[in-house]
Specification:
Layout lengths: L8 H32 L4 E5 L2 E4 L5 H6 L2 H17 L4 H6 L3 H26 L1
Antiparallel strand pairs: 1-2
Helix pairs in contact: 1-3
Amino acid sequence: MVTKKRMTGQDYLKKYNDLKLSLSSLDSHITERLMFLSKQFPEAIIINYRDDPIKAKCLTKGWVERESIENRILYIQNIEKWNREQAVSYTHLRAHETPEHLVCRLLLEKKKIQQKKKNHTTHHN
């Protein structure tokens, strides 16, 4: 029979300090992520307060740090949801196009043109 070692006061203190350090690191990471997203998507609505939406561009680091971790996580989720719901323009997509994307797009366009020509000639013959 294996007996479990009982934790001592020193063990609890070490575990507590480790958890505080982890929580502090998580807290900082959440704040940094929220501030990054608010700059990336300033028009994102983080909360609707009595039909008066608060947008991400209104966030300041001091205000964010005073909010609970739960609220900050909720704001991150709201910004991400807002971003997923936004339509992306063709121009915006082209602005972020890599050389690899460009080659792929041009090959697809060429294939489409060739198929149209092929269909056009078979319908007229």
